């Protein structure tokens, strides 16, 4: 399995680091699972759900480390999105990268997500 990605406000992620695990954002709690995106989905996720929001982080997680708690389920337009049923252990996190805004207010992703 490949990496999956979570877009997270910096303060919420800092709380997770202090706690030793990520328990989810308010939308995750409401839906009963932690929302993730694949590399092919994360840019659209940012545009749809985080438009213009600053001080976000892109958290890359090794999907294999999450075991059967990670399920790919139909969501937007029938596409399969990764959902984690349980807390995210920080041991599964491969990188945490700032997700700044460009002058037009769009998020700037690392090259491995959007090749130059």
From TrEMBL:
InterPro entries: DUF952 (IPR009297). The lineage of its organism: Bacteria, Pseudomonadati, Pseudomonadota, Alphaproteobacteria, Hyphomicrobiales. It comes from Methylorubrum aminovorans. This is Dihydroorotate dehydrogenase. SUPFAM superfamilies: ADP-ribosylation (SSF56399).
């Amino acid at each position: 399995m490949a990496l999956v990605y979570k877009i997270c406000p910096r303060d919420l992620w800092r709380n997770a680091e202090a706690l030793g695990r990520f328990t989810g954002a308010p939308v995750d709690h409401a839906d009963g699972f932690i929302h993730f995106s694949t590399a092919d989905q994360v840019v659209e996720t940012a545009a749809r759900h985080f438009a213009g929001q600053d001080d976000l982080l892109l958290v890359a997680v090794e999907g294999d480390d999450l075991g059967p708690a990670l399920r790919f389920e139909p969501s937007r337009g029938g596409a399969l999105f990764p959902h984690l049923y349980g807390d995210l252990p920080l041991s599964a996190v491969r990188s945490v990268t700032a997700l700044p805004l460009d002058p037009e207010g769009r998020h700037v992703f690392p090259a491995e997500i959007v090749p130059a």
